[in-house]
Specification:
The chain is of the alpha+beta class and 147 residues long. It is built from four helices and six strands, in the order βαβαββββαα. Its EC number is 2.7.1.26. This is Riboflavin kinase.
């Protein structure tokens, strides 16, 4: 699958479906519809890895789900970012910047919540490894993340 990456996106963090933290134990930051709607068509649905920054904080590794999340039968396309960092509080209304650098896998349905969680944990592990590669580390300090 040919993608046009890196892709830079930014916007306000909005409330999602509330499943990430509560049901999955894997909190996500959701972009508003206008950011999702402006995603280039060449960036297909799937799971991606890259870097993320909230407000004036540090830049952290992230994984992002782009699509309709078949397990939950979403009716609208979303961009849900899991930042690989333990935040103390929610940050709804904050400004999120991300750079999507690589593709991990297609969206797919899962037979159970446990299977979905296992897949996400695998995605996170892949992202951590990929983002340690020199060609990806350099994006952590990209001027996009400066104020």
């Amino acid at each position: 699958m040919e993608q046009v990456l890196p892709h830079f996106a930014e916007g306000e963090v909005v409330k999602g479906f509330g499943r990430g933290s509560k049901e999955l134990g894997i909190p996500t930051a959701n972009f508003p519809d206008n950011v999702v709607d402006n995603l280039p068509e060449c960036i297909g649905c799937g799971v991606y890895y890259g870097w993320a920054k909230v407000d004036q904080g540090s830049v952290f590794k992230m994984v992002m789900s782009v699509g309709w999340n078949p397990y939950y039968q979403n009716k609208k396309k979303t961009m849900e970012t899991h930042i690989i960092h333990a935040f103390v509080d929610d940050f709804y209304g904050s400004h999120l910047k991300v750079v999507m650098l690589g593709y991990i896998r297609n969206m797919k349905n899962f037979s159970s919540l446990e299977e979905l969680i296992k897949a996400i944990e695998s995605d996170i592990s892949i992202a951590k490894d990929k983002l340690d590669e020199p060609e990806n580390i350099m994006f952590r300090d990209h001027n996009f993340f400066e104020s």
